[in-house]
Structures are given as structure tokens and as C-alpha cells.
What does this fold into?
Amino acid sequence: MLQEVIFAGFGGQGVLTIAKNIAYSAMLEERETCWFPTYGPEMRGGTAGCTVTVSDKPVSSPILAKFDTGVILNQPSIAKYEAKIKSGGLMIWESTNIVNGPTRTDITNVPIPAYKEAVKLGNRVVMGMILLGAFVQKTEAVKIETILEVLKKTLPERRHNLIPLNEKALRRGYELAEAIK
It folds into this structure.
């Protein structure tokens, strides 16, 4: 199994955090992984990206030119990364605020209204966790249960009260993606 992923959006949307949760989960599941963030000095509000590789074999390099999957949270990232998804790949994208979705027909498009669903859950900050749940459903790169275990380790203890909300968001994203064939 090899999954090379780009997570991209505005700084402050949790792109690096959701990517870190995938990498950490892969480690706990005893897989090889690499987490490689990319962002400019304007991090909050500017474009942030993070590549994650999850593999059953050693990872040779954190630097990737093409991706199996893109998890995209904003319009500029669609424009930047759509062409970099491998033919036959997967694009999971936030469909509430992205006006112009991917146009390629050689990849699987999975539009998820993550922002709208996060508002329904009472906290727009969990938008990334909804997309993470969709990613888990479509790729099976890691298990939701492992991500929930990771949250207990990566979230500061003062934020552990948010774990049930994050679990709801993950599971909602999983359900939404499952409904898209």
C-alpha cells in the first residue's frame, strides 16, 4: 500500500494538523510515513500545504511532484494542485466555499460540504476533521479509531473536551464520502 497525499488550504484551516494526524496514525499502525509541510511566512491566511506519504515499505523522499490524493480546503489550492493529481487519483474537496471544483475527468472527485457540516456540528473549526473522515473512507490509509487515539496525544490536555466533537466530525465526513460512489 502506498498513499501519497497533498493537504492544502489557507493557513489557519488546520491543514498541517490534519496531515499530522494521518502521519502519526500511520506510525501507530506500524506503517512507514513522511510528513512534509510547505507554507510561506504569511502562514495564517496565506496558502499552507502538507504532503503525507503512508506506505508499507520505506519512504524514499518527502518531496513529491505528483499525488495519489488531494484533500483541498480552498479555491487557490484547487488551481495549484488539480494538475498534480495522478491520473486515476482522487480529489476530496470542500464544496461549500469552493465555487469552481476540479474539472478533470480522469480523477475521482469527492465534493464534501465540510464547512456547512461543521457549522451544523456547532464549530466551523472541525471542517478539516470532516475532510479527514472522507479521506479515511475513500483511501483506508489509516483507521478512524487510530486517529481518535492520536488526538488524545496531539491535542493539549486542556482541549481533550473537543475529542467527542472531533469524533463526530470524522464520522460525518466518513458518512458523506461513503454516499459518493
